[in-house]
Amino acid sequence: MLPQDLARLQISTHPSNPTPPSAYSPYLPTPPPEPSSPLLPAAQATVYIPTPVHPQALAYARTRFAKVLAAHEVGAEEGWARADGVVSRAARIGRGQLEAGEGGNKVMGIGIVGVGYDSIDIECCKERCITVMNCPGANSQVVAELTLSLTLALLRRVPELDRRLRQGEMMLSIDNLGRTLRGKKVGMVGMGATARRAADIFHHAFDCEIHIFSPTTSYTRWSTSDPSGPLPHTRHSSLASLLPLIDILTLHCPLTDATRNMISTRELGWMKPGSVMVNMSRGAVVDEVALKEELSKPELVLEEEGDGNGKGRKLWAAASDVFASEPIQKDQSNGLLDLPNFIGTPHIGGSTVEAQVDVCIQAIDQLADFFDGHQVRNRCGNLANFDVGKK
């Protein structure tokens, strides 16, 4: 294909998509980066780390701050009372923690080890002038790797067949056919760094056709003007347009009021027969009760060859690295972990040794730079209205 042809093809608009949205990334820094004026430099700051981090990252934190209070060394009450700053890896941070400072001491900055900040009371942070910073893109490679791993595991039925072998069942390969990934249509909700890396892998390694629903993202994303370069894809203006066309659905969007239960009974009914879904965003983006009901149905039997109106489930299988209740336990999974056609992992998308060290060091550096008065990087604020067209 000639370069000019690639430039023409890199974005195509679905017929139901006449008008591009005029918005930005799901994660918008609010307000824009600006010089900060904290009351003390990093070399005098006490930082609390309320959840376990890799030992290398903990050792590095102690080179950047005067005092580091690790979760295994101090109780939560003491940690929050003494903290000038916080390095948070999947911690739930609410008003009670943020207002726990003793003697007028208060948290001034929070560094998030990762991207999502729906577990933090952002409104309370704004009220108390607490700067919150995340690390977008820092673990995109490893999360994309898990996206691919779960997709292949679903298509080739790896966990199911492994369980049956361990239970002593004798199986013939002809009776346990899977499905190939090559050439499939992959639909993605969200266009962040992880979605981009996963899309690159699906498209370039497996010749997959990429379809996108990301209403708050500019149409320049993944185009020739994008710093990450162009990637051929088709944009859709609604889930109703996207879901009936795709073989694989992967979710990479933030959790907002608009995206909560975004995939529910209605949307599952729109899915293409035999499709699979992988949720890498947040558990509550998918209605777990509706998903369990769909996956519990018998396999779809078509009334006529090639039609999509038969009886049974349309979604063949699903996987999720995230759950509405975390850390997940089997009895809190709304029955999903009882199903043979569902794969669950305990929010390990960014959990490799290399990624945990690298991302935590980035969060530490951003927090230390904030205390030292440098420009704030990756400040978090309101999530953009990721409108899914339900209202």
From TrEMBL:
Positions of the D-isomer specific 2-hydroxyacid dehydrogenase catalytic domain: 78-379
Domain D-isomer specific 2-hydroxyacid dehydrogenase NAD-binding: 149-297
InterPro entries: D-isomer_2-hydroxyacid_DH, D-isomer_2_OHA_DH_cat_dom, D-isomer_DH_CS, D-isomer_DH_NAD-bd, NAD(P)-bd_dom_sf
Record keywords: Oxidoreductase
Domain of life: Eukaryota
Acetylation listed as a keyword: no
GO cellular component, one term: cytosol
GO molecular function, one term: glyoxylate reductase (NADPH) activity
Feature: compositional bias, Pro residues: 17-38
Region (Disordered): 1-39
Entry's family note: Belongs to the D-isomer specific 2-hydroxyacid dehydrogenase family.
Name of the protein in its database record: Phosphoglycerate dehydrogenase
Organism: Cryptococcus floricola
Upper taxonomic lineage: Eukaryota, Fungi, Dikarya, Basidiomycota, Agaricomycotina
